Give the backbone structure.
Amino acid sequence: MAHLRLDPTLPVEEDEPSLVRRAVAGSEEAREALIRRYLDDVYAVTYRILGDTDLAADAAQEAFINALRGLDRFRGEASFRTWLLRIAANAAKSSGRKRQRRREVAIEAVAEPASREPDAAELTVVRAEAARVRAVLATLPSKQRQAVTLRVDQGLDFREIGRLIGSSEGAARVNYHLGVKRLRELMQ
């Protein structure tokens, strides 16, 4: 039986704890790998809080700078991703306070089935409905809005959501359910 040989030039997917240990030890390669792995998630959180692409990019950069500077303070009580997303949420909130304005969470339109392309009229309806959802979502209290968007858009579990919004897992669950209930009421 022939042995399978891996191409040594291809990057091997390293697990998160190993990357974090190496990054704490000073590995620039591990730090870059963590940035590549979580850049989209961090940007998504900052964008959903700020609603502005430029502000979100700045907040995401600030989050990575803060996280990498404070990497030695990561205790591993939560996943690195959860810890990083909490830093990103804090950076976005701080940026929003500095700007004295805050545009709220973006909801992405539901994709049409791949079997056909939507026509212009359908896209107009979907965009209008997405704008309506964004407007209604913006009226929710902050923790409800964040719980709904982190659950729906990021697929986070309630424990992670609780850590990100600064509450318990149970409170995150309640905020999510109250937010969804209120959205349904307001959308009717």
User: Anything to note?
Assistant: The domain at 119-188 is CATH 1.10.10.10 (Arc Repressor Mutant, subunit A). The chain has two domains: 14-103, 119-188. Confidence is low (pLDDT under 50) at residues 1-10, 100-113. The two ends are 64 Å apart (CA to CA).
